[in-house]
């Protein structure tokens, strides 16, 4: 893999994870760990590690190679009209957690395109990683006469109460991307299951290394929803297979600079590393640059979660970046908007309470078939 290609994407700087992980994860209520031993987890072969995670089965990677269809989740017979009975447009608010995050800015842009495509009226809020601002935005949506809100909650606990307030006020509430615990606070969840992203990535590792491997992990923010669930999925699959040894796990706090530092510490400490699992694509690209500096990129395979364009390009070109579990932002955004319209038009009962489209297993054979739109 060409070094200048990696640097192009590492220059992005800091990412807040994608979608579920793309929500400013430090505000999920979890603590922040350092990139030193404080962020480490025990080896997968130890009893303590095995007891922390559910036993999960590997997934059939070939079942996750294509893009899902919106009609798989929003039935064709759903009424998704953009107008009310009196002919006026439905008014829907999109509550973005932080548009300084490139993927979330792109999601806002996609909603603007969907507003034109479907003829609804949308208003846009940017909470700038502040849960209190996002709570205020929910109140603003109520007072501005919105009919529905689509919200990617910054804090999965704190936002449940204002979300329920909006629902009690008669608004349709679509919980986007970062699942809150109180089912009464939303009409429908449309977003990823990060446990599955970890399962899928672990399954790609097992496919690439059928006889076992020595693995290091680069986490997002410790205690964040995405970090917890991606770890749970990855370790949950591998913990019953002692041939896959997790040497160490450290946090990079969704930062590419910290990811480079973590990778350098792994390279200095471990003479043999077969696999690096990073919980966000830009960390993987940064870790590859570190491995290149140590002249060890040829001996290590890299896997991650997100679906950033830089990751798709690197995987398509072949080399050490082997696979990522992708969420398609365009698909998620359209499904969320149509879910809101289905509820507004009285067809919400045709949708599942939790609508969880699958991740896409991106490998060299299909990476060129997808465009991320960001990263």
Describe this structure in words.
By secondary structure, this protein is of the alpha/beta class. The chain is 35% helix and 16% strand. It contains 11 helices and 12 strands. Helix 5 links the parallel strand 3 and strand 4 (172-176). The two termini are 18 Å apart. 56% of the residues are buried. Mean pLDDT is 88; it is low at 1-50.
Percentage of residues assigned to helices: 25-40%
What Rg, in angstroms, do the CA atoms define?
20 Å
Order of helices and strands: HHEHEHEHEEHEHEHEHEHEHEE
Please tell me what the overall shape is.
elongated
Q: What's the pLDDT, averaged over the residues?
A: 88
Stretches with pLDDT under 50, minimum 5 residues: 1-50
Number of helices: 11
Care to count the β-strands?
A: 12
Q: Which class of secondary structure composition applies to the elements?
A: alpha/beta
State the strand order across the main sheet. Answer: 2-1-3-4-5-11
The largest sheet is: 6 strands, parallel
Q: N-to-C terminal Cα separation, in Å?
A: 18 Å
What is the percentage of strand-forming residues?
15-25%
């Amino acid at each position: 893999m060409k070094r200048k290609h990696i640097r192009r994407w590492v220059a992005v700087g800091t990412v807040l994870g994608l979608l579920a992980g793309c929500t400013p994860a430090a505000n999920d209520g979890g603590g922040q760990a350092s990139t030193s031993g404080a962020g480490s987890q025990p080896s997968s072969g130890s009893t303590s590690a095995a007891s922390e995670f559910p036993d999960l089965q590997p997934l059939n990677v070939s079942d996750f190679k294509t893009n899902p269809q919106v009609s798989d989740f929003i039935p064709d017979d759903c009424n998704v009209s953009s107008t009310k009975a009196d002919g006026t447009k439905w008014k829907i608010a999109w509550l973005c957690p932080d548009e300084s995050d490139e993927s979330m800015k792109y999601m806002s842009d996609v909603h603007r395109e969907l507003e034109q495509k479907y003829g609804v009226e949308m208003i846009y809020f940017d909470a700038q990683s502040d849960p209190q601002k996002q709570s205020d935005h929910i109140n603003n949506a109520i007072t501005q006469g919105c009919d529905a809100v689509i919200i990617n909650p910054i804090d999965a606990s704190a936002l449940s109460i204002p979300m329920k307030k909006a629902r009690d006020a008669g608004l349709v509430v679509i919980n986007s991307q970062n699942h809150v615990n109180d089912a009464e606070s939303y009409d429908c969840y449309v977003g990823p299951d990060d446990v599955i992203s970890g399962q899928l990535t672990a399954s790609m590792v097992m496919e690439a290394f059928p006889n076992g491997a020595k693995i290091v992990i680069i986490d997002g923010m410790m205690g964040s929803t995405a970090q917890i669930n991606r770890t749970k999925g990855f370790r949950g699959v591998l913990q019953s297979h002692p041939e896959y040894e997790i040497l160490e796990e450290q946090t990079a706090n969704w930062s590419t600079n910290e990811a480079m530092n973590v990778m350098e510490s792994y390279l200095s400490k471990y003479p043999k590393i077969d696999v690096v699992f990073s919980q966000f694509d830009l960390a993987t690209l940064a870790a590859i640059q570190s491995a290149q500096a140590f002249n060890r990129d040829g001996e290590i395979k890299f896997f991650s979660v997100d679906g950033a364009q830089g990751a798709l390009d690197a995987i398509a070109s072949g080399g050490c970046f082997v696979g990522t579990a992708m969420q398609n932002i365009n698909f998620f955004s359209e499904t969320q908007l149509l879910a809101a319209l289905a509820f507004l038009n009285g067809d919400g009962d045709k949708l599942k309470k939790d609508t969880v489209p699958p991740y896409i297993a991106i490998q060299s054979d299909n990476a060129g078939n997808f465009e991320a739109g960001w990263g």
